Amino acid sequence: MNCNLPKITYPTLRTLLLLKIYEGICQKTDVDVENPLVMHSKFGIERSNFKRFQQLSVPKQVRNQTAIALYHSSIALQIGAGSTQITQQIAGQIIDFFRSSPFDSAKAEIEKRLLRNLTVRATEAGQLEFEFGAIAISAWLQVVLQHCSSQALERQSNAASAQTLSKNPEIFFCQYSYARCAALLRLVDSQPLISQETIWLRDGKLLLHQERSLTAQIVTTLDTWEEAAALKSAIALSQAFQAFYQNCQIVKYDTIDREIAQCRLALVMITHWLLKQLLEQGLGVLAPETL
Fold first, then answer.
1. N or C end of the chain: which has fewer CB within 10 A?
2. What are 52-71's pLDDT values in tens digits?
3. Are 96 and 157 within one domain?
4. Buried b / exposed e along 259-288 (16+ C-beta atoms within 10 A)
């Protein structure tokens, strides 16, 4: 676990799903009795046993060509313990809960927006599938961007000496990616290109196509923030950023759609902030603004 990394205070998509699945399974039939369908199964779950529940049902992000945030969970299969009938009942119960549960008025507005744009279905194999739609992704990205913007330290041009950079080639690769992000952001410092409210959507569709791999990796990085090794997360994010940098026009924004340019720069800003935390807090090495 990356104990030194800062706590993420807004909901990661995986954690939000986990909590809602838990609520769906542990609905009470009355004020005293837990849902009998679950309590009578092999993997009876009590509210005091949340850690075990996490091990059983953590939704896993699934990568494909069309979805940025697609998750599978095998919780219905695991609780059903080989019984097709019980598996179908539990899957149906969870799906019904997601589709019909009222929104708590005290729930954070961002969580409401994410859950309103969530498709839930069961696969033939009994897996539960969750896909966040374009509206949910855009809302979540905007929250992450605003958080990064508010937390970002003033960038300074520090000439990095040989002693300040890691001799470990994997760490240096991550430092290089961070410095590249910083350089891109410096190039647009004098231009009001990143607005307070970045426009992620057009006609209800995300303005993200070639940028999808980096966006999906940002989702993964934050989903696994507390348990993944900092170096592993930093390398994966750096690789996704380098592919994005090679395939997408970022700086010469006068030659491309302005709103697409805004989205791309916003992704650079998010990547820059995440790499800074992973390098400095997670690995204890310099996050160089220049090389």
1. N
2. 666 777 899 998 888 899 99
3. no
4. ebbbbbbbbbbbbbbbbbbbbbebbebbbb
Residue 164 lies in a domain: yes
Residue 70 CA to residue 219 CA, distance in Å, equals 10
Measured from the Cβ of residue 116, the count of other Cβ atoms closer than 10 Å reads 12
Q: Cβ contacts of residue 191 below 8 Å, gap of 6+? A: 253
Sign, CA dihedral 223-229-230-235, equals: negative
**Residue 79, C-beta contacts closer than 8 angstroms, at least 6 positions apart:** 25, 38, 41, 42, 43, 45, 56, 86, 87, 90
**Cα separation, 34 vs 14, whole angstroms:** 25
Query: 218-254 pLDDT, tens per residue?
Result: 999 999 998 899 999 999 999 999 999 999 887 665 6
Q: Where does the pLDDT of residue 193 fall: very low under 50, low under 70, confident under 90, or very high at 90 and above?
A: low
Is residue 115 within 8 Å of residue 16, measured between CB atoms?
Answer: yes
Query: What CATH number does the domain containing 164 carry?
Result: 1.10.730
The Cα–Cα gap between 262 and 29 comes to 49
255 and 143 share a domain?
yes
Domain termination residue (choose one: 132, 154, 185): 132
The rounded distance, in Å, linking the Cα atoms of 278 and 5 is 7
